[in-house]
Give the backbone structure.
Amino acid sequence: MNTKSIVVFSGYNNRALIAFFRTLASLDVPFHIVASDSKDPVFKTTYKKHVIATRKSKLLDKDEIIKILKHFRADSRSELLVAPSTESLNRFFLENRDFFEKNGVFVPLVEKSLYEKISDKKPFSELCKSFGIPIPAEYADLKSAPVPFVAKPKTYADAGGNHLSPILVHSEKQKKNFMENEDSNSYYYQEFVSGGSYYLLFYITKNRKVHKFSQENLIQQPGGKSIVAAVGCNLHHSKAAAKFQEMLTGLGFHGFIMIEVRGSIDELRMIEANPRFWGPSQFFVDSSTNLFLPFLKEYGIISDLEMNGRSNVSEFNRYFWEGGIYDRESMDFHNYSRVEFDLELDAWKSCDIYRRNDILES
């Protein structure tokens, strides 16, 4: 069945990668890892045996990467399929797509222009608005934005190539600091949406078949960073989810995508989209909807029988990453409280994504 060899660049988005490795290992699918450096967390797992090379530079250097991949191709005699694991990696391979494809290295992503339209926050926000999907209220400029608000980068990087991230501004002091230290022209400004936090997760095939899952996020790192605790929900069966599906399939999008929405369940607003692997991927791997399976099936890695035979519910009914709680008091709670968390702590810990047999060191 195998027509391509899977290559994974590790060292970043590690929670998603460990979930992907677990899926591949459970299917006995061969895979090959290019480590970021000697301190890559993959070396603290049983998957270190799959490392075929360790990069000398953490920068995505085209010459170094093609040298590694050409050497491996000479041994494997197969085309290589690069896992779409991180934003920077995806953009690097899209920018150099023709070069890599001529060398037998393929990335399972849509064309560059569509990818950027979805991944860049401002274009995707405008796209959703034009499609009748609610977005947070926007302010004309920084001065008119009342706190709290969110400063969102218009594009992935500024004119100098520096990666930009959203900045939550909760006070006048923070607003003043933002005005003094950031280039306001690189950002646009939206209201801060409180209430529930949800992820809609899709894998859409090239023939428009939609595989989906959703989660309600309960605990999050401050500043809108990583999710550390979540439970399943049925949002992927809602009219809101159907609207996103219609838009994405109409655009010809295929592949992985996570869409964050926030607010009350009957008045959700689109926050952002990430067309790649996502940190809490272990949750859908543990569910009855492992979204890695249709991806592997679509690219000829597994058969229909293997895909359909692996959709079993496991013992884990929550997502939890205890290591992400680096400062307990600063964590953001959504429709959940610290008191509830303390009462259920043992149940949460039993689902910790790193308390499993494939982790050699924590």
User: Anything to note?
Assistant: The mean pLDDT is 94. The first strand starts at residue 4 and ends at 9. The first helix runs from residue 14 to 26. The radius of gyration is 20 Å.
